[in-house]
Amino acid sequence: MTYVPFLTLGLGLGLGLLAAGSLQIGNDVTLARQIDLLFGTPAEEFADFAFVYAQLPRMVMAVMVGAMLGLVGSLMQQLTQNSLTSPLTLGTSSGAWLALIILNVWFPDNAADLQALVAMVGAMSALLLVITIAGPRNMTGLPLVLAGMVVNILLGALATAIILLNEQYAQNVFIWGAGDLTQNGWEWVQWLWPRLTVSVLILLFAPRVLTLMRLGHQGAAARGLNVIPMFILLIGLGLWLVAASITAVGVISFIGLLTPNIARAVGARTPRTELLVSMFLGSLLLLLTDSAALWLSQWTTDALPSGTTAAAIGAPALIWFARRKLKAQDQLSIKLPPSSDRLATATLPVLGLMIIGLAALSLTYHPAESGASFALPGDYQWALRWPRLLTALCAGVGLALAGTILQRLIYNPLASPDILGISAGATFALVASSIFLGNSIFAAGSLTAFIGSMAVLAVILLLGRRHQFAPSSMILIGIAVSALIEALVQFALARGTEDSYSIISWLAGSTYRVTPEKALLLMAVVAALTAFTLATSRWLTLISAGRKFASARGLNVQLTSVILLGVVALLCGSVTATMGPVAFIGLLAPHMAVMLGAKVVKSQLTVAALVGGCLMVFADWLGQVMLYPMQIAAGTLVSVIGGSYFLLLLIRGRSHT
């Protein structure tokens, strides 16, 4: 379009002004002195050295990394024809992060030389896994983003487990997770810029390929383009840029997601124009974000990492774009496993016996390095084990009930507290209370977690109504909230305080630190809410038949929905406050109940609660004995099991489309 040169000129001018402005934040050097230093005058005072070796390289790094993230985001979105793809939503950032943790923990001697290469291998592996799960035909739809989100959860759980099992080796990787542009010289700038020169290849050769791919894969192939090899080549170049950037400054989310959408909104229509404008916008957005982080750091005791600030800005922006961009075809094809026609008479007794058996195993099985044995627990062992057992059982029951209520209430088989971000809301409130108010995360009350859960529920209700609580809308809200939580958590870890490992061990979802008082309180809350849910199961039965049908039968649907959502928030808040966030139980247990034939509301609630209890008790016991004397948190194991099941659902849905 005729105004594109003026657009790029304006962006370039704005970038220059913003770069100059960012150098003035917290700067004691006069403008005249700054100009002299820029033209080679030797630094003499401390302020001069801070300007030349801290502020200048930080500004340059922000411009470079922002441009690359914007370029790669545009490249990914054009290749997939999907406005919601980015290194964040495709799992590549988590793949690179996990690979860097593995390198630093188990191969520290090679870390300095292989960081960028290993990060790229991790990012590429994650992307290949996501594409395999979603399928090549779903590159333009939401299943690709959803698969990326689940892979993010799985890789994050594995990274957490490795850090907890290797605390003494993982301290130096925290800064990567937070995404910090702080520089102490020009070394990282000099290391990074040669590795970013491959971006020239993208700018030279990608536009023609992207133009042809707008015709569709068949149309592009008919015009002589080898679609798959070119797709792999361009994605590989893009992931190299992402991996090099992550190695230098850590994980910075949302830049690559937002800038291409903004570029198209301001008039970028051709592939080349979108790539260029996205680069300028990426630099502008990251520089603006970093300037905000610097300015806020002037008023706080802690320096705010740029990655945390980017997530705080990007999460609401993702929700906004999702509301504007989602269309009717942006739906998910989910094929639930086959189910029995009716609930067998023996199902409930068998599940009850399984819980009793797992409880007995947990109490009497004594792992030891010299060999395991079975014996009744002594007083000391009993005092340690029964709170853990009771917490795991109640957490499984509570989250299973919460998932069943949500799935029935909003007619969405993918609804669960973790995927929708309700558990993440409780986590956000508790972690924020620990960071900003100085409260111990283990001493925080259920009220704080309940407030966080209710806040996310309110957001879901307000934003989800436009799309009738469709899976697409709900899941994207969950992605945004979860990314914001992750940024806050990484900020807590990057601070390097004594609470860092306490927070990450709590986030793993462990029963290790649960006190008898907290276990009994959780039992009381879950028992009361379970009794209430079963007593009012008629409400869910009527709502499941349709809101108009329920209203015609005299049910106040709006009030009932608020009450039931309050029950969900109480369950999630209580469990999260007691043992930390636990993923996928709220998704897995209701599905397994239906598979067993529990299709009536009351029977589904009962069976799901028993299944959830079984899963959590088993995961807690397995985590204690698998790598004895080390322990794996129950939440980590459940994330792996539940995440694998969720990915299986996506694959089944793809095979039936």
From TrEMBL:
GO terms for cellular component: plasma membrane. InterPro entries: ABC_BtuC-like (IPR037294), ABC_transptr_permease_BtuC (IPR000522). It is found in: Cell membrane. The keyword GTP-binding does not apply. GO terms for biological process: siderophore-iron import into cell. The keyword Membrane applies. The chain crosses the membrane at residues 56-76, 88-108, 114-135, 142-165, 191-210, 222-240, 246-263, 275-297, 303-322, 343-366, 386-406, 418-437, 443-463, 475-493, 519-543, 555-576, 582-598, 605-622, 628-651. Keywords: Cell membrane, Membrane, Transmembrane, Transmembrane helix, Transport. One of its GO terms (molecular function) is transmembrane transporter activity. It is a multi-pass membrane protein. Gene3D superfamilies: ABC transporter involved in vitamin B12 uptake, BtuC. Belongs to the binding-protein-dependent transport system permease family. FecCD subfamily. This is Fe3+-siderophore ABC transporter permease. It comes from Photobacterium ganghwense. The lineage of its organism: Bacteria, Pseudomonadati, Pseudomonadota, Gammaproteobacteria, Vibrionales.
